[in-house]
Amino acid sequence: MNDSAHILLLDPFHGGSHAAWSRGFQDGLTRQGHRVELKTFPANHWKWRMQGAAAIWAHDLQDTPPPDVLLTTDMCDLAQLKGLLPATWHGVKCVVMFHENQLTFPWSPTDNDPHLERDLAYSYINVSSALAADQVWFNSAHHRHVFLEAIDAWMSKMPKPRLSKPAARIAAKSHVVHLGMNFEGWDAMKPDTPLTWTDCNVPVLLWNQRWSWDKGTDAWMNLVQDILARDIPAEFVVLGESKGRLPEGWEAMREHMGSRCLQWGYADSKEDYVRWLWRSTVAPLAPKQEYFGLAVVEAMRCEVMPWVPESHAYTETMPEGHRFMAPEMWLDALLNQSWKTWPTTPQAYRQHAQSFLWDNVIPVMDGLVRKALST
To answer: Residue 53 in contact with residue 77, Cβ under 8 Å?
Structure first.
C-alpha cells in the first residue's frame, strides 16, 4: 500500500467525547501522512441517527469517488450503509468504532422502548455493523468484553434460525483503541498556591459528567443529601452538560447546596473547566455504565482523587495501587478525611492520565489502518 491513505470518517453523533475523538483522529492520522475527511451530524436524536444516518450518507456519496478506508461509529448502521453505497465502494475497508453499545447501555426508566422490546432493534444495528466491518474498535477492553459477552444473551431472545457464532466472529477482528487525550496548557491553569491533600480540611467534591441518569446522579445526590444533613464540611463543583430532562431532584439539590456550591453548570470555556478541575479534591462517581471514562481521566490529570467502584473501565484506567470505593464507602471516607492518607499520590494520578495522550494512541490507530489495507 501507499504510505498515505484516504480515510472517510463519518460521525453521526458529533458532540462531547464522540466529537473530541473524531477531531483527534483526524488531526493525528493527518500528521501520520493520511488524508482524513470528516462528515458529521449533530449530537441529538440518537435513535434517528442510528436508523437514518446510513441512508442519508449513502445518498450523498453516490457520485463520490470511494476512499481507501471508511470509518464510522456505533451510532451508524454500517451494514445498511455498505448495502446502499454504489458498487464502486465494495472494495473499501470498513472500520467501526464503539464508543458505547445498545446491548449493555442502561436504558432510562422514562423510556418505554424496552417495555415494548423496541430496544432490541438498536442492539441489532450494533451487532450487524460489527459483523459488516473489517475491523471493530472498542474504547476499552472492558467495553469489548461486556459487548461480546452480551451478544449470546441477546441472540437467545431471537426466533430460530439465529445468527451463527456472532460473538466469535466479531471478537476475531476486534481491537482496543483507548480514547486519546489532549492536555496541552493544562499545567498553566493550575493555581499559583494549590492546596495539598494533607492540608485540605474542606474538600471540594467534583461532578464533571453529563447530568444524566446513567452517570449515577442518584448516588451523587444521596451523598450530597447526607453531607448537608450531617453538616459535614465540604464544597461542590458541578460541571457537565444538561441536555434534555434533568434527573429528578437535581435542581432541588442545587438549592439545598446554597453557598457551598462554587460552580453550577457548563463551564464558559475549556480554560474555566480546567481551572475548576484544579480546584477540586475528590470526584465521587458510581455510574450505571462507563466504557472509558474520559471525564474521570481529565480529573486525574488535574490531581483530583477518583472515588470510583472496582467495575466498568476503571480497572484499566486507574493507576496501579489505586483504592477503589463503592458509593456506600463515600460518607465514611469524608468523615475520616481519607484524602489526607490516600495511598496514591496526586502526581501518580496526573502521570497516569498522561499515558492516554493522543501521541500514544495515534500510532495504534495508524497501525490498525495500515493492517486493514494490507489484508
So the answer is: yes
Cross-strand pairs, 204 = 235
Which domains occur in the chain, in start order?
Answer: 6-180+357-374 (3.40.50.2000), 187-354 (3.40.50.2000)
Total-model pTM = 0.94
Helix H, strand E, coil C: the string for the chain is: CCCCCEEEEEEEEECHHHHHHHHHHHHHHHHCCCEEEEEEEECCCHHHHHHHHHHHHHHHCCCCCCCCEEEEECCCCHHHHHHHCCHHHCCCEEEEEECCCCCCCCCCCCCCCCCCCCHHHHHHHHHHHHHHCCEEEECCHHHHHHHHHHHHHHHCCCCCCCCCCHHHHHHCCEEECCCCECCCCCHHHCCCCCCCCCCCCCCEEEECCCCCHHHCHHHHHHHHHHHHHHCCCCEEEECCCCCCCCCCCHHHHHHHHHHHEEEECCCCCHHHHHHHHHHCCEEECCCCCCCCCHHHHHHHHCCCEEECCCCCCHHHHCCCCCCCCCHHHHHHHHHCCHHHHCCCCHHHHHHHHHCCEHHHHHHHHHHHHHHHHHC
Region 55-72: mean pLDDT is 98
Q: What is the mean pLDDT of the chain?
A: 95
Regarding predicted confidence, which is higher, 107 or 220?
Answer: 220
The type of residue at 99 is H
Distance CA 277, CA 301 (A): 9
- CA atoms of 76 and 128, how far apart (whole Å): 11
| Whether pLDDT at 365 is above 80 | yes
> What's the rounded Cα separation, in Å, for the pair 239 and 273?
8
Report the distance separating Cα 35 and Cα 26, nearest Å.
8
